[in-house]
Each structure stands twice: as C-alpha cells, then as structure tokens.
Amino acid sequence: MQTTEEHLRALMIDGLNGDAKAHEALLRLLVPLLRGFYRRRLRGADDDVEDMVQETLIAVHTRRATYDRERPFTAWLYAVARYKMIDHLRRVGRLRPIEDYDEWLTAADFEASSIARLDVDDLLQGLPDKQARAIRATRIEGLSVAEAASAEGIGESDVKVSVHRGLKALMGRVQGVLR
After folding, report:
1. Is 68 helix (H, G, I), strand (E, B) or coil?
2. Are residues 29 and 77 in the same domain?
3. 90 and 163 in one domain?
4. 43 CB contacts (<8 Å, ≥6 apart)?
5. What pLDDT, on a 0 to 100 scale, did the predictor assign at position 7?
6. What is the domain range of residue 87?
7. Within-domain flag for 57
8. Which one has a higher pLDDT value, 99 or 71?
9. What is the number of structural domains in the chain?
10. What is the biggest distance separating any 2 CA atoms in the chain, rounded to whole angstroms?
11. 113 pLDDT above the threshold of 80
C-alpha cells in the first residue's frame, strides 16, 4: 500500500466525500506512520505508543471535518499527533520545556520523512516580512541571532522578538486548524 502524501490526501478527501472504504484504508495506513512518529519521541514506552496511536486515530476520525482539503494531509496529521502527545505528556508529567517545542515546527525533519513536504514559503508567506526573514535566517538557514541581526541591519533583540512572534503566529494558525 502507498503512503505517499498524494495517496493519503486522496484517501482523506474520498473519506470526507463519504467513501467509508477509503476512510478505513486511510486509518489502516496511518497506524505504522503514527507508531514510528511516537516511537521516536516516546522511547521505552511501548504501551504509551500504542495508546497514542489509538488516540490519534480516533482524533483523525472525529476531527476530520477540520481538515482543509487545500493543505497537505500529513502536515495536518502530524499536528494532530503532536497535540495528542503533548496532552499525554502533560497527563503523565513528562512535558518537555517549551523551548524545544518551537524547534518541532521548524526542524529539518518536520516529519517530512518522504511523506510530509511542507512548503516553507507558504507557511512564512502569511507572516510580516520581518518575522519571516528572521525565522528563515535563524531557523532554516542556521544563522545565529547576531549574524541575522547584522545581515538585516537591526538589533539582536529585534531578531529574537521577530522569531518569537512569528513562531507564535504559526502556532496560532496550526491550533486554529485543529479546533
């Protein structure tokens, strides 16, 4: 069975259009993807991994109406999975510090593992230019805050504030999709 973005997205859309077999096939294909996602993050907690997979499948089923057909499916899926994981970590008292969270959004392997290819330009397009440039420089190109500030001719604190506000806006957008 295929697990490409296009195939998964097509199954999701067919399911939204009332094709129960497509929806069932989609959920079956998501199981190994979600297991891998959670195993990489919840090391040594196999029972938790299976619980998280089931919770996420239920969320995909119950929240499927929130999926925007114009967006990549896997980006939506992994956003749902991340929120389920955060809820789980809060419940068990193992939530990571918030500083790590913004890196999940911009990490090079943003679950892009040959499936989810987010178009960074599209993501940053909705932000003010200054914020988008600061995020691109520090989080994508790997410049230090000092280097980004020097390249833009602005202060380091201005770069930090722009990155913070830009990431906050992106988080708000993702949360809006899930509600």
Report:
1. coil
2. yes
3. no
4. none
5. 92
6. 5-96
7. yes
8. 71
9. 2
10. 56
11. no
